[in-house]
Specification:
Length: 155
């Protein structure tokens, strides 16, 4: 595209020169000097554009890739922490994740946070169930001990 633009510029200035020759302008006229100066200016501008555009595209690409790779890396680290847990009751040590405002995949972070909350709720319910079972076991032990002491006293 850039090469086609350069050729288009050269063609335009060539057409102006042909037009001036058709009007029988003297080659020392200011018109030819003006065309030459304008051609140099546009060629320099074109050269700077050719140098500056790839740099801008590269920087934009790096920025965009960080908006994608950053959240995925963040989520990967959080999932690795979960996988390293020795016991599910340690799930309370896992914190929520937050992505930068300019990042992509905010829905993924929300879903991860909902899942962590759900797991924490399940762990809390399981802890309550275990506590209830423990209290029932203690109650059964005390009932069993009182029953055996009554049998011993009756005998």
């Amino acid at each position: 595209i850039l090469v086609a633009q350069w050729f288009a510029l050269q063609y335009i200035f060539l057409r102006f020169n042909i037009y001036a020759d058709g009007l029988s302008y003297d080659s020392s006229k200011i018109f030819y000097a003006f065309l030459h100066d304008q051609s140099l200016m546009l060629n320099q501008t074109f050269l700077w554009m050719c140098l500056f555009t790839p740099i801008c595209i590269f920087l934009w690409g790096v920025f965009q890739s960080h908006r994608i790779a950053g959240p995925l890396h963040n989520l990967k680290l959080k999932l690795q922490k979960i996988r390293q847990l020795k016991d599910i009751s340690e799930i309370n040590l896992i914190e929520e994740t937050q992505f930068r405002r300019s990042d992509y995949f905010h829905e993924l972070a929300d879903e991860y946070n909902k899942t962590i909350h759900h797991l924490k709720d399940i762990v809390d319910i399981q802890k309550q169930n275990i506590a209830a079972i423990d209290s029932n076991v203690v109650e059964l032990k005390s009932f069993s001990q009182s029953d055996t002491t009554k049998k011993d006293q009756a005998a």
